[in-house]
Amino acid sequence: MANRYDTGMQTRRQVLGDAHVDRAEANKVTFDAPFQTMITEGAWGTLWSDDTITRRERSMLTLALLAATGNFEEIPMHIRATQNTGAAPQDVLQAFMHVAVYAGVPAANHAIKLAKQTYAELGVEI
Length: 126
Hints:
Layout: H1 4-16, H2 18-27, H3 33-47, H4 55-68, H5 75-85, H6 89-102, H7 105-122
């Protein structure tokens, strides 16, 4: 790809899906455009586009970090993304079990609750 933005947008679409990215782009205004560019270039164009580890592994790491840091609002989005990254529900559960041991049972418990709700919405049997 010509630059990190283009690479990031391609990776972002592959992981999160066109519908999610299209909604984010439609909601972008002048105020948050620099932020959207930063995450597209940095998170998606650099980190998620690197092939040192698999996207399945990145999903598991991301979900564990979101839960461990209490950033629960992004967990459903990243659970939905596992359909594109190859992380199975059992992988996600293992990530959250690590959260329980290393960051706290309440954080893992809430993350598991969100995962169960999201999988139910997706029609994924767990």
